[in-house]
Amino acid sequence: MSITELLSAEDIKKAVGAFTAAESFDHKKFFQMVGLKKKSADDVKKVFHILDKDKSGFIEEDELGSILKGFSSDARDLSAKETKTLLAAGDKDGDGKIGAEEFSSLVAES
After folding, report:
1. Is 11 annotated as a binding residue?
2. Where does Ca(2+) 1 bind (predicted)?
3. Residue 95 marked in a binding site
4. 58 known member of a binding site
5. Taking the model in full, what pTM does it have?
């Protein structure tokens, strides 16, 4: 499944474009702009599985660093600081990665 089957390509382009500057990423604004916040819980989980590149059932720190590329292949990587901030916001159980439920909560809090 492609991310554009779940989210508008135009919304993705605008959201990715809004965070092209280094250290500008704000996951709450991004999830709202990309339209993820308005999606059903099932669709949010589908997006999680697309972003879980290694299909481990978790989005690990290295996958988080390239999370924008999961939405658009020409997007930038997050900085180490942005990645750690995103991980801290989403990793509720402290295991160093974000599971499907944690991702759903992260989107819902946006």
Report:
1. no
2. 52, 54, 56, 58, 63
3. yes
4. yes
5. 0.94
3-state secondary structure of 56: coil
Mark residue 40 as left, alpha or beta (left: phi above 0; alpha: psi -120 to 50; beta: remaining).
beta
Q: 52 among the known binding-site residues?
A: yes
- Residues 66, 76: contact at Cβ < 8 Å? no
Minimal CA–CA distance to 25: which of 10, 33, 2?
33
| Nearest one of 107, 86, 90, 88 to 98, comparing CA atoms | 90
To which H or E segment does residue 99 belong? Answer: strand 97-99
Q: Do the annotations mark residue 97 as ligand-binding?
A: yes
26 labelled ligand-binding:
no
Using the structure block, give the residue that is written with the tokens 């900085």.
79
Q: What is the pLDDT along the chain (110 residues), one digit of tens a residue?
A: 899 999 999 999 999 999 999 999 999 999 999 999 999 999 999 999 999 999 999 999 999 999 999 999 999 999 999 999 999 999 999 999 999 999 999 999 98
80's tokens = 């180490």
